[in-house]
């Protein structure tokens, strides 16, 4: 069994500590943002990615264009880890990816649900309760088959996708924390 560590409001976990239906994420670009997905078992994650044209070298989210995300509009990538890695439906930004490619050599974190409202919500946890794992995985697979709409960094991103899979609603705590910290709202 892997070691589980708590840091701030989140849980750093080992691969053996995650279960089907877990909302997982990994920090990207010097901890500027986290990429979120739903672990569906067998070493696979379903996640939501921006289209390649939204990813540029000047964009702090540009690492999303690497192997785990936008390797080409609707092209399937090849991965030695798993034959389903990189699978997506034509025109959809929802993809199945192996855990190794999802992590991009980063650490594995589990998003927390049902935290007390006294904790600061900074995009690593929510007071919302998660639905049962079977419902979460069913939602993620449904969205893989049918899409999750157009990607938008602020209103429809990978965190929204994972929150929706877990609860049936979606609002990004990471974006809310950034907006609050910058005094935008």
TrEMBL record:
<dbReference type="InterPro" id="IPR007053">
    <property type="entry name" value="LRAT_dom"/>
</dbReference>
<protein>
    <recommendedName>
        <fullName>LRAT domain-containing protein</fullName>
    </recommendedName>
</protein>
<dbReference type="Pfam" id="PF04970">
    <property type="entry name" value="LRAT"/>
</dbReference>
<feature type="compositionally biased region" description="Low complexity">
    <location>
        <begin position="62"/>
        <end position="71"/>
    </location>
</feature>
<feature type="domain" description="LRAT">
    <location>
        <begin position="25"/>
        <end position="174"/>
    </location>
</feature>
<feature type="region of interest" description="Disordered">
    <location>
        <begin position="57"/>
        <end position="88"/>
    </location>
</feature>
